[in-house]
Protein 1
Amino acid sequence: MSGDSDCTRTSPSAGSASDSELLPDRPKYVCTLSPDLVTKAREELQEKPEWRLRDVQALRDMVCKDYPSLGTCLDDAFLLRFLRARKFDYDRALQLLVNYHTCRRTWPEVFSNLKPSAIKPVLESGFVTVLPHRDPQGRHVVCIRPDRWTPSNYPITENIRAIYLTLEKLIQSEETQVNGIVILADYKGVSLSKASHFGPFVAKKVIGILQDGFPIRIKAVNIINEPRIFKGIFAIIKPFLKEKIANRFFLHGCDLNSLHQNIPPMILPEEYGGTAGKLDISAWNELLLASEEDFLHDFSELVLPCDSSPHDLLVSGDADEKQCDDSLRGMKPQLYYCY
């Protein structure tokens, strides 16, 4: 995934043939999609195998022309993530790529020293894991359990770091790039004091990353065991959600039958009325921790061009922080009321 920008070594107008001659060290893309997934990508993402490398080259040329100092990887496989996430719309894929780098620049608490070993306590707590089996649509299920977090042990940003690394690992798979993921969030035992850590400023940044700053397709968010306090939490989140994403939230309460309509019991652990055995976090933790060297290689220092327009930035800085702090003061009565 990593690598210095190749823009200084080739002209933005160079075609794919001359580009490959100038840059023989760039990994050659080999499609790993099954025939069924190739068909699905064509139908849902407008991905045409015969045009795939042409589309990648077009995005590469746009990066080199408009953001020559972005410092991004320009490998075929890496750029394909952004094209697939935006259904091969060049302009939207380019903006997503810029946002991806902008997020890393504007939130150092999350992105500094980002590697699996740095978030080992979060992984060991079981705050976030990935179920071992995909759902019938071929989607991984990311399980998030806020009750596993003790705020006195580490700040909420550590949880966000763990989620981000989990998504980075998942998106390496072309199957996930096409099928997307499903989120299962268990809010059992979430108290008012814990909820207060997730104010509008944090909410806006997290949702900004998931919606506009990361190349992954979130197909459903299933909330289980949500307490009354969740009404206040969702009131904080909803203003930042696009309608398309908001419609993919499903609140099940304590009704496991309702959950099973979205996620079949055969892939769920016993804790959620499933038949896949006890929830085991060790396999995913081992996989993520074993990827340490890959992440160290991938997450090199990323720098945005100094002439970036404010419209290119996902987060605009102090003004947004002040606005969100003001919003938090307005939201707190809702949290207390719901609690």
Protein 2
Amino acid sequence: MQLWPDSGLAGRDPCMAPGGALEVGWRPTVELLGASSWSLASQVCALHQTHTATLSSQDIADNKTQHPCDLLLNESPNSTRLKKLVKMAAKKNKKQKREDYRAAMKQDDVLTMPRKKFYRQRAHANPFSDHQLVYPPHPDQMDWSTLYPAYVAQEESQPEATPSSTTEDLSAPVKVKKLTQDVEVADIGCGFGGLLIALAPVMPQTLVLGLEIRVSVTQFVEDRIKVLRRQNEESKAYQNVSVLRANTMKFLPNFFRQGQLSKIFICFPDPHFKARKHKQRIVSTTLNSEYAYAVRPGGVVYTITDVPDLHGWMVQHFEAHPMFERVGVEEQEGDPCVEIMRNATEEGKKVERNKGEKFVALFRRLEDPVF
């Protein structure tokens, strides 16, 4: 049986009426619901449009919206078929709620902090996959103006640059807006941005950048920073932090010039326990050379993990590198960033709740050798 034989929507969820406002998705519910599915779908769409018309983007961000199936169930609480419809649409309902929520968070009038449950994504991402990432061919061609709008330099004759993309035409010229200062601190694998937010008031005159490979998690941090900036418009707080989706295992030198960074944070990285996965660890002989390139002499690389084996791995590889030396325990514990790193990140809080142990190690970038 087909609900809409001429529309190509056969087998689609009855909630997805042609021209309706719903995007519950594809569901083979036609056989279950029978001939009354079309009328139910029509009622659902009508109720949904009436309900959402009264909601602002702030209401959606506050999760005040209801799924249209829930609205219709309130209208007809004894409908057995409708209950089945609600149950079968539940999974797709979650997806639609996430999309509606994220769309609402993009509005300029939202002052509510984003909620993680609408940005969940699996914890692991393959750094060797061909992700659709945008990156500059050279650090001088990176446009930071959208990430740090409060630090954009006054308009002058700006140099031409090339667009940074795996798909765009690299020959098309674009203009890069320069900043009044460079990014100096990078949080590699920043997760949900706990460290970034904590560092912002501690380093108010320093530009801090979070680098995260997961799409949804990056979007969460973006929305979080936007809301914090709106909430602190008068004080101009949190203008010095931002986040960028990037694969640092491949493209770190594309973003930062030699010696540009003063600090790099590597907090609770993926341990990749299996030996065949060790090549995906964020600390290795090759990657440490890239960190040595980006960090200026005297700069520090901060590491923390709750996995003893990974801690030993990072210590071993940094100590073996000729451009790094380990910072002593006394100096380490006197660094205010260490305490923030221990307690501000989401993973750090999770380890604390589980009464786990955290292993910290700092490594200072040595002076370049004289030839």
Protein 3
Amino acid sequence: MSAAPAYGEDKGGSAGPGEPEYGHDPASGGIFSSDYKRHDDLKEMLDTNKDSLKLEAMKRIVAMIARGKNASDLFPAVVKNVACKNIEVKKLVYVYLVRYAEEQQDLALLSISTFQRGLKMLRMMVASNVNQLKPWVESPG
């Protein structure tokens, strides 16, 4: 007579010794490894030239933070996107920075030049918009 495994003992598909366990995390958008490479897909998305992929990655990261997951290892990849032209990505990057800048003070200090580049781009965008509006605002004299 064979005994059936107790509830919770047989999860099926468990990894062997030395192999990473896999699970499903809705915030990461797919299957991830529980080892240190679990955020590689998000890092790749943040490093692309496509704003849509960057936006999707930032949404996933902010969702992870909202659920209490640790996303501090993504700090360098996220900070690089401060200078992104997409305003939605930029807003989510600032949400991330508000959460992790205090924990990652050294990296935050090293990334000041990236912030300055982002502000310079914003300043140029505002200046170009002001120049376009000047003829409409100026009153006939």
Protein 4
Amino acid sequence: MQEIKARVTGEWHDPHNGGTYSLQHEGPLRFDLERVTGNKLFTDKMIFEFVDRANSFPSCEINACSESQIFSIKDFSTNYCNLRNLYCGKGDGCVPVLHDFHSYELDVETSKFAGKDKDACIVEPETERTTPMLRATPQTQDVLLGATVDETLACISDNCPLDEFTLQPKPSCVLGNCTSNLAKCLFSSSCRHGVMCELKCTEPLAKTAEAEHFSSLMECMRVHCPGFPPEKTCAALHCGVEAASCAVHSKCRHALECADKCVPGKYAAALAAMPRETII
């Protein structure tokens, strides 16, 4: 417990992309933790529970879990590494703070598509996670996305409406309708990171009163203007009322503008359908 707490609260460097841990609650044999990724975009929550086995081997048993706080199909071992990097020793390539001890894992259970790759736990910080998903020149936001991204976003948009409160498509719908497209996207860092960036933009809006305005606009675009990217003329013709409703609610408008920077083209038609006098 001392070693884990020292890593969380001290000057220890997280070897998995330079994340930042914080201690949210401490009990006699329990820690509740949070980790913010190195690029400050994503937050994961963890629970560590300890069993003191004095005069036996092993002398300490660790039971822990980690969960991403946004919609995530595949985590590339992030949640596993969130936990492992707090107890691994020099033999694992880690840098202890107070105590270097050996550990072995009795059981590792993951959700579907989540990983448990030890080699993924010690990597250099990523520099690409906030890069917009552009096909070529990053100076031009109107450049269309690559074919892989186009197909993935079109499939999700056409088949899976956003939940009214979470503003995320249901994982079962995405997996049921867009598995092959999603698999291609997962192997494209620009596609994967752009989608995660987009979800981060809508996160502050989720479960608020203004979420309804955003979801209504997206549902109108999905029903009346399918495909990627949607046509601006179609959005203006069929979704002008929903766009105007979003425009006059600042959180809805800001979420749309933020997401458009992550996935240029996807939200351009909806933004263009907003009355110009209401856009601040």
